[in-house]
Amino acid sequence: MTSKYILAALLAGAMQISTAAEVSILNASYDVSREFYKSYNPVFVKLWKQKSGDDLTINQSHGGSSKQARAVLEGLEADVVTMNQSIDVDILADKGLISANWAERLPSGSAPFSSTSVLLVRKGNPKAIKTWSDLAKPGVSVIIANPKTSGNGRYAYLAAWGSVIKQGGKVEQAKELVTKIFANVPLLETGGRGATTTFVQRDIGDVLITFENEIGLIKQEYGADKFDVVYPPLSIVADLPVSVVDKVVDKHGTRKVAEAYLSYLYSPEAQDIAAQFELRPRDAKVAKKYAATLPTLKLFTVDEVFGSLKRAQAEHFKDGGVFDQIYTRK
Asked: What is the helix (H) or strand (E) element at residue 58, kind and residue range?
């Protein structure tokens, strides 16, 4: 069943409610998604009011994606999670909070949009940074979120590693590149927004590695004349998965509204809002409309290089994994 018909069925059921009610849900999300949901939530609140008569309040919680997953595990009663990596949803599924088949419940693996890792440099690009290998050069200061606590940082790490493998390099060469890059990292923030603050407001670093959708927000808030974006010749696809938290919505009685909230993310209206914030939409017509700000890039998937995000997590980011081996804490 397509998301269009799922949403129609959900809203049709809501219309049977004869008495308006006050309803609230909590969306636990990664930290660089806040501006998108600030725009999307009022649209859905209005839609839900029209269809159900209910007065809906949508509360937001933001932080590093893995940090948010841990918060839900520790008792944060989020009705939905909107993460930047599938393993953070899988963790909740493994603990019985979310159905094991969560990725099959909505199209595209329950990821309504995607992003990728890009490089933000100071205006004029004084260090002449063009590709991942440039980040390993002596004298280049690199700002990145912690790959162990942030999906943003994790995808950046995997993008640099995978760029070597996809161009015919060996594992030893990929490890050497990433080791040199992290030797140039003066500090690690726990999330993507913290890394942005360090680079933009504290004026630390020559280059920020972050999600593509963060770049437009930085330029809008701080001025396009202060920074340049560099698209590496090769980068990674970052799918952005969503799910209801089954145990919570059944406890709160919010399953219908929570499911409709996520399903509507696939609508042309929501896809257009996402593209405005430089999230890459699944809707081909919307993607074509925003081709100027979301250019076609040469990208690879996690599965192509690492087998799966779970395998990458186990090998690179678990305690004692490759990242712990190569990173010397400052």
From this structure: strand 55-63
- Same structural domain, 205 and 247: no
The gap from C-alpha 25 to its chain's centroid, in whole angstroms, comes to 20
End-to-end C-alpha distance for the chain, whole angstroms: 51
Same domain, 81 and 213: no
Question: Is the same domain home to 93 and 125?
Answer: no
Q: What is the pLDDT, as a whole number, of residue 88? A: 93
172-197 residue pLDDT tens: 999 999 999 999 999 999 888 899 99
Tell me, rounded to whole angstroms, the distance of Cα 302 from its chain centroid: 14
User: What is the pLDDT at residue 22?
Assistant: 93
What pLDDT is recorded for position 6?
52
Cα(211)–Cα(114) distance, integer angstroms: 10
Whether 160 shows a pLDDT value over 90: the answer reads: yes
Give 3-state DSSP helix, strand, coil % of the chain, rounded to 5: 50, 20, 30
From 226, 251, 266, give the residue that closes a domain. Answer: 266
Does residue 278 fall inside a structural domain?
Answer: no
Determine the Cα–Cα distance for residues 181 and 299; give it in Å rounded to an integer: 20
Beta strands at 227-230 and 207-211: parallel, antiparallel or unpaired: unpaired
What is the dihedral sign for C-alpha 138, 141, 142, 148? Answer: positive
Residue 55 in contact with residue 49, Cβ under 8 Å?
Answer: yes
Q: What one-character DSSP code corresponds to residue 298?
A: -
Buried b (16+ CB within 10 A) or exposed e, 197-223: ebbbeeeebbbbbbbbbbbbbbbeeee
Q: Are 185 and 135 in contact (CB under 8 A)?
A: no
Cβ–Cβ under 8 Å, residues 150 and 185: no
Say how far residue 121 (Cα) sits from the centre of its chain.
21
The burial of 77, by beta-carbon neighbours within 10 Å (0-12 exposed, 13-18 middle, 19 or more buried), is given as middle
Predicted model pTM: 0.84
Whether the per-residue pLDDT at 231 is higher than 60: the answer is: yes
